Each structure stands twice: as C-alpha cells, then as structure tokens.
Amino acid sequence: MVVRTLSAVVLAPLLIWLLLAGPRMWFFVVLLVASGVLLWEWLRLKNLFSYLLMIPLLLAQFLVMYTGYRGYLGWIGLELVLILLALFAWSLVEYRPGGSVSDRAGFRFMGVVYCGVPLMLLDGVRAMPHGGALVCLLLFVVWATDTGAYLVGRKWGTTKLVPAISPGKTWAGFWGGTLAGTAMGWAGMVGFSLPFSWLEGLVLGGVLSMAGAVGDLVESVLKREAGVKDSSQLIPGHGGLLDRLDSLLFVAPLFYAYLRVRGSGISMGAWFFGG
Fold first, then answer.
1. Both ends of the chain: CA-CA distance in Å?
2. Cα-flanking dihedrals φ and ψ of residue 168, to 5°?
3. pLDDT the model gives residue 56
4. Cβ atoms of 134 and 194 closer than 8 Å
5. Partner of 85 at 20 to 30 A CA spacing, among 98, 137, 236, 266?
6. CA 30 to CA 245: how far, in whole Å?
7. Measured CA distances, 54 to 48, 173, 245, 267 (Å)
8. Which residues, at least 6 apart from 217, have a Cβ–Cβ distance to it below 8 Å?
9. Over the stretch 12-40, which tens digit does the pLDDT of each residue have?
C-alpha cells in the first residue's frame, strides 16, 4: 500500500502540471509512449507478443494517433481498415492447423484500436478550449470513482457486483464510486470555472463513473481469461499500465463524443435522427 501511494504521489502532480502548463506536443508524446506500453501488455495477455510484429504494430498505432493529432479524422477509418487487412494477411503466414486466423488478427487489431484510439481522443479533448482543465476534470472523476469504490466497498461491501468476473467488487463499492465521481463532476466544473451547468456536471460525472466501472470489469475479464493478476509489473504497487488506465480507456471516448456534440450546437435528437 505504501509503494502504491508513493507511485501515485509522484506521477499525479507531474501529469497535472503537464496538462495545465505544458505544451500539447509533450502531452501527445506521453500518450504515444503510454499507448505503446498498453499494446505490449495487451498482446502479452494472449501470448501474441512478437518482436517481429511489434514494430509494424507500433508504427500503425502511431499513424492512427498522429492522424488524429493533426486533425485529419476522416482518414482514420481507412487506416484502420488497411491495418486490419494487413493483420489478416500476416495471420495467414502464421497459420497452423487448429489455430484461428480471426482470433489472432482480431485480438491484435483490437489492441491497436483499444490501446491507441481512446488516448488519441483524450489528446483531442486537450486540443479543445479549456482542454487542460477538461482532461484534469476527466482524470479527477476517474480517480474519485476508484477511491470512492475502494473506501465504500471496503467499509460496507457485502453483496458482490459480478463475482464471476471480479470477486472483490461489490454493489456498495459501485455506488460509492458513482457518488464520488458524480460529486467530482460537479466540483470540477465549479473549480475549473468550465462553461457547464452544475446539473450537467453532476450528470456527466455520474455517467462517466459508471462507464469507468464497466471498463474496469472488461479488463478484469481479459486478465481472468489470461490467468494473470496484473497486466504487468511495470508500476510499483499498481501492476501494469493497463490496470491503471482501464477505466480511462472507456470514459475518454464518451467524454470526447459528448464535448464534440455539445460544441457543435447539435441536439442529441438531431444528431441521431437528422434535422
């Protein structure tokens, strides 16, 4: 617990300074490095890591993220299709009787998308007006959710949330985390003087908290299937980077989508149904 706390105390202030005072390019470089580490941990979960394939996968992930960084979002769909086709072709080279081309290519492709695109969208949030404060708000909601879930679950948790996936998580912890994240959504709006209403902050905080809990459970399923406790031992006391960012990978795309729709002036009904 001491090592875990010290790791957070050292890393969190550096990240907050980078968001509020550092250039966007530095933030993007940090995300780029993080995406590479996440992809490495992701491939290790299914024993699909290969030095021969890792370099082209990292280049493909860099291409997608840099395209987003430059604002050429319309090209990303084509890039992802080409990456998928290339992975299917490579799986044919690796094919052995009894193996599955779709499983190998699909999991690698999921890694490029899951470990790269959410962080690319997080950089997209950073590029918006009030971007540094918005990313800080998102991180604070995620951290508040994790802390609230841990403290409330430890104190009052009895009924298991999804025991087949994560025996340690309880309904009390889930609601404690949701309430903490909801409160942080409101507090962040006020503290950073963001152009949101207090009600919007509460609702957004609650929705993002619940989405983060789902992201945590998804990574728990992957680790359970792989038969490992942590995605790696990269961060002292915390496990792997995937263990720390599992919630963020889920909530960042939702936050980005909400901000884009909100900033466009288009109502959600018009966005879905036209008009």
1. 54
2. -85, -15
3. 94
4. yes
5. 98
6. 13
7. 10, 38, 21, 42
8. 161, 162, 165, 166, 169
9. 677 777 777 778 899 999 999 999 999 99
Confidence of residue 269 (pLDDT cuts 50, 70, 90): low
DSSP string, 202-230: HHHHHHHHHHHHHHHHHHHHHHHHHT-SS
- Residues 58-72, mean pLDDT to the nearest whole number: 96
Q: What are the pLDDT digits (tens) for 219-267? A: 988 888 888 877 877 776 667 888 889 999 999 999 999 999 888 655 5
DSSP string of 83-140? Answer: HHHHHHHHHHHH--TT--HHHHHHHHHHHHHHHHHHHHHHHHHHTSTTHHHHHHHHHH
User: In terms of C-beta distances under 8 Å and separation of at least 24 residues, what long-range contacts does 126-129 make, across chains too?
Assistant: 126/19, 126/24, 126/27, 126/28, 127/24, 128/259, 128/263
* Neighbour tally for 156: CB within 10 Å: 14
Q: Angle formed by the axes of helices 131-156 and 241-264, to 10°?
A: 130
Q: Report in angstroms the alpha-carbon separations of 243 from 37, 87, 116, 181.
A: 12, 26, 15, 19
Q: For residue 199, what are its two tokens?
A: 């009600």
Query: Which one-letter amino acid corresponds to residue 247?
Result: S
Domain boundaries, the chain: 2-265
